[in-house]
Amino acid sequence: MGLDRFLSVPDDGGYKLVVTNRTQPEPFQRMVENLFAEQTVDVRETVDGTYPENTVLLLKDGDVIAESSLDALHDAILMVNSDLYTTGTRSLDETNVPDVIDALTDIRFSLRGYPESNTEKLLLILISRHIERRAYEVGDGVLRSSFQSLSRIKDERGTRRTYRKVSDTDVDVHVYGKPDWRPTDELDVTAHYGRTRDFEHSWFVVYRPPPDRPGERSAALLAIESGDAKWEGFWTYDRSVVDDIAEYIRSNL
Q: Any residues with CB less than 8 A from the CB of 56 and at least 6 apart, and which?
């Protein structure tokens, strides 16, 4: 089964995103709804005097577990495109994930890339950068990332800058993909090459902090390409799940 086996981990239920006391124009609400239209996340709108205007709440089984401003969603994902990250226009230090997105863990997403959708795949790109930034800020541990084609590191200026910055720390960086490019000395990374399904059709960013930093959070994003520009995936901060994914990658790729 390869990495596909881990797609059974997410629980796929109980999340609701509620836009509260909206004063922003109607298109803001529609963008939030469109972003999650194909997902199991229910999007609603309400008025509630206990929260400020334009607050977005994330509920899990009826309980509020995170909140963000509607402006934060607008700036991070609703009004941007992937070029912002691949070209380096938005740097690693400038990558901020709204709390209501960050907390959507352990839920399986079915996401479409361009041309089917201009925004859905951004969820994966944003969380990928978020995990990379986490590794960079801790400055130690192990980061394992797949690119399908390793030449993307060379071709995408923003990706190359990100991995140069992370590899300049004490993080042990491993990159995976088809052998269409070999990293140069400017990147202190270990490259793993292959042409199996795990190499060519997976997207993962897995970070494990060093054992002597137990307070630091492990993180993993995993997605499997299920068709042209279509992905099934999830992200998690569950240490045991992260460890299982990381160990599978270390042993098999």
A: 17, 18, 19, 20, 32, 67, 68, 69, 70, 72, 73, 98, 100
Least confident of 17-26, 200-209, 211-220, 240-249: 211-220
Q: For 78-220, where are the alpha helices, taking DSSP H only?
A: 83-86, 99-102, 122-138, 151-155, 157-167, 197-200
Tell how strand 230-236 and strand 109-112 pair up: antiparallel
Token pair 């060093």: residue: 210
Task: List C-alpha distances in Å: 83 to 35, 48, 79, 125, 164.
Answer: 18, 37, 12, 10, 19
Residues 18/8, Cβ–Cβ less than 8 Å? no
Question: Which of 239, 242, 238, 195 is closest to 222 using CA atoms?
Answer: 242
pLDDT in tens, 185-213: 889 999 999 999 999 999 999 999 999 88
Q: Is residue 216 pLDDT above 80, yes or no?
A: yes
Digit-coded pLDDT (tens) for 97-128? 999 999 999 999 988 765 555 567 888 889 99
Side chain identity at 127, as an amino acid letter? Answer: I
For residue 77, how far is the Cα from the chain centroid?
12
Q: How many CB atoms lie within 10 A of CB 48?
A: 10
Strand, coil or helix: 248: helix
CA distance 6 to 234: 9
Enter the pTM of the model: 0.94
